[in-house]
Amino acid sequence: MKTLGRFLYQTYRLYYDGFRGMTLGKTLWAVILIKLVIIFAVLKLFFFPDFIGSHAKEGREADFVETQVLNRE
Fold first, then answer.
1. What residues of the chain score a pLDDT lower than 70?
2. Which residues touch 15 (CB under 8 Å, ≥6 apart)?
């Protein structure tokens, strides 16, 4: 267990030192994170409706998915 903790600590220190020394990299990581938030949050809200929630009865969502998958041609 001691070696696992030491490994995790050394891994943390490696990334901490690496990110601390970056200048351009910090900006690029910020851009990447902003894009991921836009992709997964904003697009999901506007372009992917809650299809199962609107078509299945309360508590019967699994049965709805089962029938949709099994009856697909």
1. 1, 73
2. none
pTM above 0.85, yes or no: no
Could you tell me the sign of the dihedral formed by the alpha carbons of 24, 26, 32, 37, in that order?
Answer: negative
Cα–Cα distance, 56 to 17 (Å, whole number): 50
User: pLDDT digits over 30-50, tens only?
Assistant: 999 999 998 888 888 888 777
63: CB partners within 8 A, 6+ apart:
56
Question: What domain range includes position 43?
Answer: 2-70
Number of domains within the chain: 1
Handedness of CA 54, 52, 55, 45 (dihedral sign): positive
* Distance (Å, whole) CA 32 – CA 15: 17
Burial class of residue 33 in the structure, from the number of CB atoms within 10 Å of its CB (0-12 exposed, 13-18 middle, 19+ buried):
exposed
